[in-house]
Design goal:
Blueprint (H helix, E strand, L loop, with lengths): L3 E4 L5 H10 L3 E5 L9 H7 L8 E5 L5 H10 L4 E5 L13 E7 L12 E5 L11 H8 L3 E4 L8 H8 L3 E4 L4 E3 L2 E2 L1 H12 L8
Amino acid sequence: MSCLVKICGLKHVATVDAAVQAGADAVGFVFAKSVRQVTARHAAFIAANVPENVLRVAVMMHPSAAEWEEVQTIFCPDVLQTDADDFQDLVVPDDVTRWPVIREGAIAEDGELPNTFVYEGKTSGQGEVVDWNFAAGFAVRSQLILGGGLSQVNVANAIRQVRPYGVDVSSAVESSPGDKDPELIRAFINTVRATPNPRSK
């Protein structure tokens, strides 16, 4: 069984469809300030045909209660992904899965971990590769979704070394900042699917 694959920062129907058709397990829509930012209404529109077996992820950063309420009400995500501390101040329904983001350097090697979380660099969407050795230590104790600088070129090595529950990609499947490329999406997902995941053994 291969890793969960999330394609993040989608802005157009065509690239959402490309991600789904290529076999993505999750598609992410960014509501934080970014070249990939979309409104709740636009995300709901471009994700309208996403099948039930593919998770629709709301990607936020330090949202206010009002901002989260708007996304929750209009977009109706399956998953909320935001910095771990943000969940202390948000009301998240039981039917919305929580994916806390833990940034490199924010937690000690023996620190307490959520059951499932996204591990990435200090700044989201910048292609910062995290320390895979450090990430591997977390991955044996929890369901770690590895982000940070993954691409078709390095994702196979990342899977073999970290043994993550999932992988998360954004900038490396773009033809220009914020614009996803269907061919790069397919190539990334195909590489992940072709890489045996030691975690599943």
